């Protein structure tokens, strides 16, 4: 019987999946013939054959059949880690991510070698990512129908891939931010023209104002006001900008002239969201609260600074203390019932630690994108930039794109005729086949390799794209000659 298995395995490795499938089925039938009682060795072999049949059916895109085979494989040997792995893989294709996650947890429990453990761990992460991101992708199908998100490994983590062939110049996907902040400069110049939630330029007659003490926060619609009040512009972040005693006004004044002002303001918005979620018990802990907003890569910003020597992280982070005190005065709970709640207080203390703040800034640094919103009212194209507003945003799907010095996408804000709200539009730079990793460049890819690598080191990785490694190959060859 292992002959059937060996021959089928050879056909499988040659990509002859239909023929391999036939042989796996024949092998199973031969062992099970006559409904005889199977020995434990036979059961193990049947389990392996069903498991291999499952992966063959996955190759043939017969996912329901593959799940059936993997389930039978588990029935014949419930210690077979690979059967759980295959069941999880079939479930991923069937878009049953929660069930897939359970299967991968079983695979991890039964796995016996390091390599399979790594595969199962990566698959588990993949199912978790799918659980978080699929609702976003399916929420606006016309934005995201060409792409999917996959978790690759512990180095690259998530990445975007094409789900179908896409022609050069076509829109790959569009993205709107889950959190965005306008720069202090644009705010001063254009604050009375822009919706403070969706950042759209608005006509004076359709402005809706916040009813709280800030008086100046304005929106283009009741919808934007309601959404903003539920997330960033909560009762705690609504303050009179002239109230010099307000800790939040002090924070905003302190950061507005810094080169990192917009980043620090975006961090404030994230703090507003997280503390609101904790206080209103929408989330049990900081990480969950952050996870409901974003699953973006984080790491301490200070660890990316030239002054970091490997041992002085907490010393470097201390400089955040004055800013954090102001955020704490604004967003820390005041209700006695909250103050008595130990779990909540533990989370609040974590939220207002310099380490958490540094990690939020690191997350912004790794993932944020500068944004432009063009005013529809500009009259003279030469001074159009004066009327455009800029800021930074965290875009859920855009932020999952990894780097290559040979990017295959063009990034633009415009769809057809100008932009009037914050949106990223990604177009294919060349024809892309289904299953291609979508990559953009985090730096000017025309710079020399050394400069590119120095910029990229801020992101905490070494680029190994073909442009970076081709230099290596050339120099190795030269040495060999
Ligand atoms: C904007 S995020 C991209 C999405 C990220 N992979 C994730 O899982 O959230 C930037 C981070 O992705 C990783 N990354 C991006 N491009 C990479 C590459 N070519 N090689 C290794 N890691 C990369 C780095 O950790 C970087 O800080």
From TrEMBL:
Transmembrane regions listed in the UniProt entry: none
Molecular-function annotations in GO: histone H4K20 methyltransferase activity
InterPro entries in the cross-refs: SET_dom, SET_dom_sf, TPR-like_helical_dom_sf, TPR_rpt
Domain SET intervals: 145-443
A GO BP entry: negative regulation of gene expression, epigenetic
Protein name stated in the entry: SET domain-containing protein
Organism, as annotated: Tieghemostelium lacteum
């Amino acid at each position: 019987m292992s002959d059937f298995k060996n021959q089928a395995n050879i056909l499988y490795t040659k990509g002859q999946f239909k023929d391999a499938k036939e042989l796996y089925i024949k092998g199973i039938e031969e062992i099970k013939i006559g409904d005889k009682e199977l020995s434990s060795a036979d059961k193990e072999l049947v389990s392996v054959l069903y498991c291999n049949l499952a992966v063959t059916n996955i190759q043939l895109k017969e996912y329901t059949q593959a799940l059936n085979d993997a389930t039978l494989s588990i029935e014949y040997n419930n210690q077979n880690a690979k059967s759980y792995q295959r069941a999880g893989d079939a479930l991923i294709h069937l878009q049953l991510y929660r069930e897939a996650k359970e299967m991968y947890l079983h695979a991890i429990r039964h796995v016996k070698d390091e390599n399979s453990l790594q595969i199962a761990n990566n698959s588990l992460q993949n199912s978790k990512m799918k659980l978080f991101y699929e609702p976003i992708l399916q929420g606006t199908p016309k934005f995201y129908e060409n792409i999917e998100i996959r978790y690759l490994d512990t180095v690259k983590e998530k990445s975007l891939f094409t789900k179908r062939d896409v022609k050069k110049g076509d829109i790959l996907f569009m993205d709107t931010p889950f959190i965005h902040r306008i720069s202090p400069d644009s705010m001063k110049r254009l604050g009375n023209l822009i919706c403070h939630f969706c950042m759209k330029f608005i006509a004076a007659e359709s402005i809706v104002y916040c009813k709280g003490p800030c008086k100046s926060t304005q929106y283009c619609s009741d919808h934007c006001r309601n959404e903003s009040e539920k997330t960033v512009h909560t009762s705690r972040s609504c303050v009179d900008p002239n109230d010099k005693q307000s800790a939040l006004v002090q924070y905003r004044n302190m950061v507005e002239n810094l080169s990192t002002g917009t980043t620090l303001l975006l961090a404030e918005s994230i703090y507003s969201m997280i503390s609101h979620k904790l206080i209103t018990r929408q989330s049990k802990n900081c990480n969950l609260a952050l996870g409901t907003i974003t699953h973006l890569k984080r790491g301490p910003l200070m660890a990316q600074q030239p002054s970091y020597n490997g041992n002085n992280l907490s010393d470097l982070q201390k400089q955040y203390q004055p800013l954090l005190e102001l955020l704490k005065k604004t967003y820390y709970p005041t209700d006695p019932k909250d103050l008595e709640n130990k779990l909540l207080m533990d989370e609040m203390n974590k939220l207002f630690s310099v380490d958490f703040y540094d990690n939020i800034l690191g997350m912004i640094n790794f993932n944020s994108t500068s944004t432009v919103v063009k005013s529809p009212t500009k009259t003279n194209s030469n001074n159009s930039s004066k009327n455009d507003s800029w800021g930074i945003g965290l875009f859920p799907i855009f932020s999952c794109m990894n780097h290559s010095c040979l990017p295959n996408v063009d990034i633009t804000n415009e769809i057809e005729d100008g932009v009037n709200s914050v949106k990223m539009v990604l177009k294919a730079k060349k024809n892309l086949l289904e299953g291609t990793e979508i990559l953009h460049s985090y730096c000017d890819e025309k710079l020399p390799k050394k400069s590119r690598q120095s910029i990229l080191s801020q992101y905490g990785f070494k680029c190994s794209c073909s442009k970076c490694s081709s230099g290596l190959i050339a120099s190795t060859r030269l040495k060999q000659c």
